[in-house]
Amino acid sequence: MSTLPFYAPVSDDFEAVNALILRQLHSRVPLVEKIGEYIISAGGKRLRPLVVLLAARACGEETGRQHSLAAIIEFLHTATLLHDDVVDTSDMRRGRSTANALWGNAPSVLVGDFLYSRSFEMMVALGSMGVMQILSRATNVIAEGEVLQLSKVRDASTDEATYMEVIRSKTAMLFEASSHSAAVLAGAADPVAEALRVYGDALGVAFQLIDDVLDYRGDADAMGKNVGDDLAEGKPTLPLIYTMREGTAEQAQLVRTAIQKGGSEQIVAVQAAVRDSGALDYTEGLAREQVERAIAALDVLPVSPYREALEQLARFAIERQY
Q1: What is the Cα–Cα distance from 24 to 20, expressed in whole angstroms?
Q2: Are 126 and 68 in contact (CB under 8 A)?
Q3: 5-319 is classed CATH 1.10.600.10
Q4: Dihedral angle over CA of 88, 91, 94, 97, nearest 10
Q5: Tens digit of pLDDT for each residue in 104-147?
Q6: For 15, which DSSP code?
Q7: What does the alpha-carbon distance between residue 34 and residue 21 come to, in Å, rounded to a whole number?
């Protein structure tokens, strides 16, 4: 369990979720369990399950059903990671080898499929049609976002609006589904559920914006991935889009060529161009706006340690260095 303060109010819930995850990873095929346990044990920050637990508690949920929902969300997220790493041919995540680097692409894709299908089995057992509607739509939108991003690889003409569509679909959607489904599961009134949906969307957008800043400013060891990975893959993220739009002609051409070629040969020069053009400050500024939007959405909730933790989590989104 993380020592960050916003985990503390739901530390007991997290223990229950972790135990449930291990039980639900069972399979009659040993390789499924092996890969599933490997990717789950990498841990990460487990932010999406955290959002589920805090939002459910903030809405008065006390039955323990939020534990199943948090595990479902973690399985959905892990499935997307397994598939992402294959699509991106990544060999490092969270500071260790990816599943596809160890076992190959085919097992990674298939275990991702297993985690998706197991999560839907668990959704059915939960018995909430409202939750199923939210999560089934979310998985559909996430898949669309992945394909949209893939279609823009090495496309230096990608604009800010398209970038925002990608990150809202690919990253923010599961945060949004986490907070929204937790409120629905807890039986919150429609205005409260809608406010928590907005919170999740804003939080997810802020996290991705800062991720894209850290891709040029971060520390590889702290992040568990290589600085400049997105550029190496030819992904036109906002710092690059801004530099092409607002930078000098030389800066714009440098970035345009780097996106079109992919690879990391020009990473040092691109880092300097992105920094000097003001792109990182611009991207951070948008992230701060999203954090304020997230915090404002929490006004519908009664004061509680859970609401306070949700606010702390939103502020962490822009203060973190990893």
Answers
A1: 6
A2: yes
A3: yes
A4: 150
A5: 999 999 999 999 999 999 999 999 999 999 999 999 999 999 99
A6: H
A7: 14
The Cα angle at residue 26 between residues 25 and 28, in degrees rounded to 5: 135
Strand partners for 97: 92
Kindly calculate the radius of gyration of the chain based on its CA atoms and give it in whole angstroms: 19
How is residue 41 written in tokens? 């044990």
- Burial (0-12, 13-18, 19+ Cβ within 10 Å), 23: exposed
Whole-model pTM over 0.85 = yes
Q: How far is Cα 169 from Cα 21, in angstroms, rounded to an integer?
A: 25
3 state SS of 97: strand
What does the pLDDT look like over 301-322, one tens digit per residue? Answer: 999 999 999 999 999 999 998 8
- CA–CA separation, 294 vs 175, rounded Å? 12
Which residue in 7, 302, 58, 23 sits closest to 179, CA to CA? Answer: 58
Domain ranges of the chain: 5-319
State how far the Cα of 13 lies from the Cα of 18, in Å rounded to an integer: 9
Sorted by sequence, the CB contacts under 8 Å of residue 186 that are 6+ apart come out as 55, 56, 59, 60, 61, 66
